[in-house]
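Sample 1 of the test manifest.
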Amino acid sequence: MGSVETLAAPQIRRRPLHAEVIDRLRDLIVQGALAPGARLNERVLCARFGISRTPLREAIKLLATEGLVELLPHRGAIVSALQPERLAETLAVMGALESLAGELACRHSSEAQVNEIRALHYEMLAHHARGDLGAYFKYNQQIHLKLVEAAGNAVLLHTYRQLNANVRRARYMANLSKERWDQAVAEHEEILAAFAARDAERLKRLLREHLASKLASVLGALGARAAA
Amino acid sequence: MGSVETLAAPQIRRRPLHAEVIDRLRDLIVQGALAPGARLNERVLCARFGISRTPLREAIKLLATEGLVELLPHRGAIVSALQPERLAETLAVMGALESLAGELACRHSSEAQVNEIRALHYEMLAHHARGDLGAYFKYNQQIHLKLVEAAGNAVLLHTYRQLNANVRRARYMANLSKERWDQAVAEHEEILAAFAARDAERLKRLLREHLASKLASVLGALGARAAA
DNA sequence: TTTTTGTATTCTGCATGCAAACTTGTCAGG
DNA sequence: CCTGACAAGTTTGCATGCAGAATACAAAAA
């Protein structure tokens, strides 16, 4: 007997602490709670997360490879600056990746994947209609990620996500103008159509153009912010 | 006077230990000294490197983001397997990156950068003539890296390097046939010509083809090895 | 007032300690 | 002979301790 036991928690704790910390720290940085240039004081963050320095330090070093923070030997880490030039470089790389993703997705993705993206697209339209920029961004991100995912290339997806963090950060403080926003939605409309039609060439071109206007938008917001 | 002093060692130790360890570990893995599937026993590696576990663990986690090792919770890390599929995915992504690099390099690179690559090319030819595969690979790598570097996009270079580690590993055990080797050299010849002529479209096409044959070569070697 | 220098404090980088989780080997039962 | 369980021994994950480096601050000199 004793077989009555509730089978409690056979899963001990699969997720290492430092992984948890990475996500929390990344969120703080992306959302701007930790502003560019801010020092990452180990003691403070340890207290904040309720952990010790070892996993925190591991997390910080990993975030450094994503380019979210900068490591200064013997002086700790700071949230990396959002340099327009670096952002442009990142978006150029992401453009190449999205282009590849579009091509692969047209060839390899299932109808279900297209429909999933279509569904996300409509949810995004709903948030656009309501003027909810935050929710819009969230679904926008999801769509791009799903598209890259549909390419069926795990390395591609991983690389894309890695680069994306920095862009999300810039995006977070970008306040789209009504025109830009409408334009972006229109572009998404076309992108979805091209994907559904499996028109790889057109999809690649649209994705490139979409990214170019995204770059302009982000740089504009960054410039306006620097001016203020 | 006094100005004669050798300006001795104002640099204390700029490079953190874990960074050193990463490089050494990466070399071990790339060169196959740590075979795929091998466990990374912390104690053993600590003794080997003469350091303690903290910096070693940091290094291992960073290598995990490069895909060189795999982290198994509570069971340590193992050298990741060289799956042909994953390699193909990696090379596809690198193809997109090289293509972008070629385009940018044609536009932005200086004549000096072209000449530097030309010089490396001739050194590579020398090693090819002598049949020194190891040295050939080394210069081959350098050329590709310099080309990406010539694009003048730091993010692109970083991303490329990150992915490259895994390919180098496969490459290390690939024993090119004479034909493949000659063909690769011929392809490099064309690539250099296109780059020198700033013919972006042609360069992109050549790079794509070069990578495709590299993929075939690596997969062939991997398959042959699996058969043995 | 400005610059410099000495000192105290804070913080990072690395080493080590401890508890929990996993692995291995042995043994009882079928 | 095979299956399952238990115990000993490793190994990892995280916390903490300690030395050295960097910073901040204050006092003294220019």
